[in-house]
Amino acid sequence: MSQVKAKENFKSIPPKRRSVNEKSFLQRLWKQIDLQLMVWVGVLLIFVFSYIPMYGVITGFMDYSIFTGARIFENPWVGFKHFESFFNAPQFDTIMRNTLVISLLKFLIGFPAPIILALMLNEVRRRFFKRTIQTITYLPYFMSWVIVGSMVMSLLSTDNGSINIFLQTLGIIDEPINFLSERNYFWGILVTTNVWKDIGFNSIIYLAAIAGVNPSLYEAAEMDGASKFKQMYLITIPTIMPIIIIFMILQMGSLLNAGFEDILILAQNPSLRPVSDVIDTYVYRIGILNQRYDYGVAVGLFKAVVSIILLTSANYLARRTGNSLW
Amino acid sequence: MKKRKMLLLMVTAVLIVATALSGCSKSTNDPNSGSTKTSPTPGTTTNAEEGESSDIWEFGSSELSFSAFQLYNWQDFPATMDDNPFWKYLKENKKLNIKSVLGSSNNLQLMATMMANDNLPDLIHGDRNHPDFLKLYKEGKLVALDDYMEKYPNLKKWLSSEAADLLRSPDGKLYQFPNYYTTIPNGAAGYVVNKKIYKELGSPSLETMDDLYAYLVKVKEKYGNEIVPFEPDQAANANGIGLIYTGHKENSYYRSLSSGTIAVVDDANNKLSSLYTDPAFRESQKFVSKLYREKLISQDMFTAVDRAGIQERVLTGRVAIYAASSPLTWAMQGDTELSAKDPDAGYFVTWPIHKAGLDKNKIFTGSWDKLGWNVNVITTAAEEPEKIFAWLDWMTGPEGMATQYFGPEGGNWNGFDENDRPIFTDTYNKAEVAKLETDNVPVIIVGNTTYIDPIKMDYEMAKPEAERSWLLTNQEAVTWRTTNDATALATNLTPQAGTDLADIDVNVREIFAQALSASATAKSDADVDKILDQAQEDSLAVGYGELLEWRTEQWLKNKELLGE
């Protein structure tokens, strides 16, 4: 009722009076021309380098011949043929299952791990010890997967691999275990390696957020007799929650990125494919190695669409907590 | 305030101009610009200079310049001609200027880019079954060589006409100049045995699969984890374990396990049939999985794709038996290093191991191919295709061959005898010749095996036994004798990319790669059967039957051309 009334009141204001304090659109634009120009450079850059190349995705709906190069419209349209053949591919079920399982495992274990590390480091009082731990945990992030992969392989090797030697010395096993050929171990090895590689670097952002918590909150809590654990639970975590949620939403967008280099390098044994083959390794093998570019594009596009849906729904859910990305 | 605004405006203006320029710069790579020439269709490109140059161009008589590219990710041509002894000689003495197109381990991607940009190199060297060659042919980007072959003497003389027919593309023309083509077996596959371990275990008989098993058990008992009892090379490509398969059936083909074939010859019905239903394949996979279960075979065989580990173990003598489609190079190095420290150590090549009851003379560890494996093609981008052909033809003839393998005339050889063989001089330097051959490997793109192998062999056999080369002795005694001719099974069996058959082929290969590894490392014999049954079922579901029918057709065509 009041809304209607307000509307009526607004209408009663003469048009001339309404624009007394407002300048025309062009005037406003000119006033902030420096800001506008800066923004449009960014928009133009994104358009040129991120949107124009996107026209390539239409090859997913064509029978693409590489000899046509950039003249892609010379190729015949085939509609959803490549999508259909992906859905009907014998590997489809395996690939989808692995993609989801591996990315969920990486999410469930890899996402909280750096937060826990940050909380633990936050409690460390000795500066030197804290810095040392941080440096050591950052380091693996800067190594390429090729190096990490060969380190893991030589650690797990049956021929003089340290882990096998260690387990044998302790008498836990009699014969070396071929870790990288056993399907049961693969997901564990993959997720562990990923956590080990990224945990230090990913914890930086949470450490920074924790550093921003008002120290007086802790002092007050201490006065009230709250234990360290209670302080962490009641002050630190709620304060950094917005950051955690934003990173969680971003992570959801790349949920289908189950991995590529790590799997390609660690799952060399073809008999691991039933547990290791994910969308990206499949696209690489079939699309790039077998040069079926149109098919590869179609599968990649399918993945992108699913990712957008996941990102949007995660954001929708997060909006209810008041911490959404947009 | 005003000043600051002006500065900001200027900075942003510069940024905008830079952006616009970088955006525009893309157009310089646009394949549309300047590429208005139409691609000739296959068959119309044969001889660009027809009529105007009916005379033979003699290689070296005038300048020749062209670009060359290797279609292998692991190999490039030398960056400059000075980097290689043979090319350096050609540059300094034959007025040749080759510009290498370097892929730096991204050759296959670079090839795709060059095809998309219509910016092809003049000469491409690579595996003759590489799908890119089929694509280039289909698109009319290759120069037919038939007319040149008639004009120039060497290829016509040395490449048998049936082999040439086999190389012909569907339109009946020859577009590929083969490498290491031959009319005599040049197989290299075999089992290499560690001499010292063999002696220490009492030199037992190593003829049958049962002997092999008993021997490996003894190795494991005596040396534990120090020594890998059986080291198969590149198991994921069926390389080392393929030898075990060929030992389970008389006259079987190593080529059957190649991912480009995946079929066995069914002589009774004159067709190619499913590998998974072949009892010999099942039996050999059971044997391999038994070795695997009992830790008698390298446990990393499918995991460690990197061959450095295998090489290291062979060179340091940490394997008892090493099996591979081409084991001799590393085994020779290992033999040299090990025997230098201990005269009793080293390696020897054993006669193919076979299943008890089979005729050992009908077991062929490997296959050879009349066409070799690599080819050279000249693309329509070449300005003077005939001259490039003339150069290839010169290289495949006596002068070219002798220069590639023994250095320039006047050094290790001088002139030719009545059989066109180089006459070796008194100053023949064995070490220099060995080094030359190794150094020239990346540029020996036409290797006339029929011509060069007997020359090398005769020279070696003329020497006292103790001085003969380890490699040639073992080749002569074993590996050349124990490989069979699989030319018909190795040619034109790859479906053209983009067709339904090619999709089937991809899926069948995938299933095979998994089944091979899973069955070789299975927990029991029953599991092996189960895995192979499943693979058979899955393969049939994706169209294996259709692929086998097409392959049979192609194979029969090949046999007809070869007069088999």
TrEMBL record, chain A:
<keyword id="KW-1003">Cell membrane</keyword>
<keyword id="KW-1133">Transmembrane helix</keyword>
<keyword id="KW-0813">Transport</keyword>
<feature type="transmembrane region" description="Helical">
    <location>
        <begin position="100"/>
        <end position="124"/>
    </location>
</feature>
<dbReference type="GO" id="GO:0005886">
    <property type="term" value="C:plasma membrane"/>
</dbReference>
<dbReference type="Pfam" id="PF00528">
    <property type="entry name" value="BPD_transp_1"/>
</dbReference>
<keyword id="KW-0472">Membrane</keyword>
<dbReference type="InterPro" id="IPR000515">
    <property type="entry name" value="MetI-like"/>
</dbReference>
<feature type="transmembrane region" description="Helical">
    <location>
        <begin position="232"/>
        <end position="250"/>
    </location>
</feature>
<feature type="domain" description="ABC transmembrane type-1">
    <location>
        <begin position="110"/>
        <end position="321"/>
    </location>
</feature>
<feature type="transmembrane region" description="Helical">
    <location>
        <begin position="37"/>
        <end position="58"/>
    </location>
</feature>
<feature type="transmembrane region" description="Helical">
    <location>
        <begin position="199"/>
        <end position="220"/>
    </location>
</feature>
<dbReference type="InterPro" id="IPR050809">
    <property type="entry name" value="UgpAE/MalFG_permease"/>
</dbReference>
<dbReference type="InterPro" id="IPR035906">
    <property type="entry name" value="MetI-like_sf"/>
</dbReference>
<feature type="transmembrane region" description="Helical">
    <location>
        <begin position="295"/>
        <end position="318"/>
    </location>
</feature>
<dbReference type="GO" id="GO:0055085">
    <property type="term" value="P:transmembrane transport"/>
</dbReference>
<keyword id="KW-0812">Transmembrane</keyword>
<protein>
    <submittedName>
        <fullName>ABC transporter permease subunit</fullName>
    </submittedName>
</protein>
<feature type="transmembrane region" description="Helical">
    <location>
        <begin position="136"/>
        <end position="156"/>
    </location>
</feature>
From TrEMBL, chain B:
<dbReference type="InterPro" id="IPR050490">
    <property type="entry name" value="Bact_solute-bd_prot1"/>
</dbReference>
<keyword id="KW-0732">Signal</keyword>
<protein>
    <submittedName>
        <fullName>Extracellular solute-binding protein</fullName>
    </submittedName>
</protein>
<feature type="region of interest" description="Disordered">
    <location>
        <begin position="25"/>
        <end position="53"/>
    </location>
</feature>
<feature type="compositionally biased region" description="Low complexity">
    <location>
        <begin position="31"/>
        <end position="47"/>
    </location>
</feature>
<feature type="signal peptide">
    <location>
        <begin position="1"/>
        <end position="22"/>
    </location>
</feature>
